[in-house]
Amino acid sequence: MRFAAVILAAGSGARAGGAPKQWRALAGRPVLRWSAEALASAGAERLVVVVPPSDVEQARVVLEGLIAVVVAGGAERTDSARAGLDALADEPPAAVLIHDAARPFVTRRHVEALLDALASADGAVPALPVADTLKRDSAAGLATAPREGLLRAQTPQAFRYAPIRDAFSRLEPGATATDDAAVLEQAGGRVIAIPGDPRLMKLTYPEDFAMAEALAGAARIVRVGQGYDVHRFGPGDAVWLCGVRIPHTQGLVGHSDADAGLHALTDAILGAAGEGDIGQHFPPSDPRWEGASSDRFLTHALDMLRAKGGILLHADVTLICEAPKIGPHRDAMRTRLGELLGLPLDRVSVKATTTEGLGFTGRGEGLAAQAIVSAESPR
Ligand code: MG
């Protein structure tokens, strides 16, 4: 079934402490981005994201690359949900999923089960039984409350679009609800439960983030990328290596600044991201890259890795030449690479070797660089 999705991210999230939880990073990606990517990849034809009016621009940045409409929400959850539903009214979808941004682990399987359930209802909700004993606390002490028949409702919740929009439009001014199914229930619509999933947990308290990080980690893999580059020596009085200018009796010949260290590293990162090689992204035939600082090649590769949810973990570069001597510049190179890569010094390595006078590097005709990186990315 074709469907649209509304993601509610308009809450202040005060209980999670610090920044509102939709903007907090979870394994390197904002929580809102997790939810939006999950629903987009589950097949949502349209995505509406509802945020506080002051956060519309921030949401557009976080959602870059996804086809999503950002809408300003209202004071209450019901106001925000109504705004999200209204944004779909010009081309009403058959079905709509309404989801809390703070539940990042929604999958296609959840979505399909919910849409299937709409065959026999106006609304469907993933819900879990209550496993803990329920207590009511009062001045007189604790009393045990019956839990029979009680369910914990999660999101996303799926609805036929027409009845849920109608239910919201008939809601009394000032009426509130803690989920969207409640609005349809009050309007007399039929809502059914499907089995919920602990992984649809809502990030509410600070400790929830620790558990979510563990879940997110289980869904990630480590990738390794390697790169190799050579440049020929030519006339000049300095070489660029690993982003550092080193005075020398010769220069390196190349279309850009000929920084073989940064080129090898750029290819290693592109390798880890599965995004081709430096020549594809920055063809030597393109006059824009003539004399270019190789910083920008590296930054571009890193952006591509990050756009896929990847995080660079570590980088190791080996420079192969008889001269210039690398040792005196090694710390400056590591510091510069750390700045460019956003890594602490102990995750950046620069090594040097000669080839004992053998081959083109031994004869001093040119210089070679190898790089290897590790990165973590979604499975
Ligand atoms: Mg090169």
Binned, the helix content reads: 25-40%
Relative strand content: 25-35%
Give Rg in angstroms.
27 Å
CA(first)-CA(last) distance: 27 Å
Structural class: alpha/beta
The molecules bound to the chains, other than polymers, are: magnesium ion
- The oligomeric status of these chains comes to single chain
Residue runs with pLDDT of under 50 for 5 or more positions? none
Question: What do you see in this structure?
Answer:
The protein has 379 residues and is α/β, with parallel strands linked by helices. The chain contains twelve helices and 19 strands. It has helices at residues 31-41, 56-62, 77-86, 108-117, 161-169, 180-186, 206-218, 260-273, 278-281, 295-307, 330-341, 359-362, and strands at 3-8, 25-26, 29-30, 46-51, 69-72, 95-100, 123-129, 134-138, 141-145, 151-153, 157-160, 191-195, 220-234, 238-241, 244-247, 251-253, 311-320, 348-353, 366-378. Strands 1, 4, 5, 6, 7, 10, 11 and 12 form an eight-stranded mixed β-sheet that branches. A five-stranded mixed β-sheet has the order 16-13-19-17-18. A two-stranded antiparallel sheet has the order 2-3. Helix 3 (77-86) packs across helix 5 (161-169), helix 5 (161-169) crosses helix 6 and helix 8 packs parallel to helix 10 (295-307). The radius of gyration is 27 Å and the shape is elongated. It binds magnesium ion. Magnesium ion is lined by residues 229, 231, 254, 260, 263.
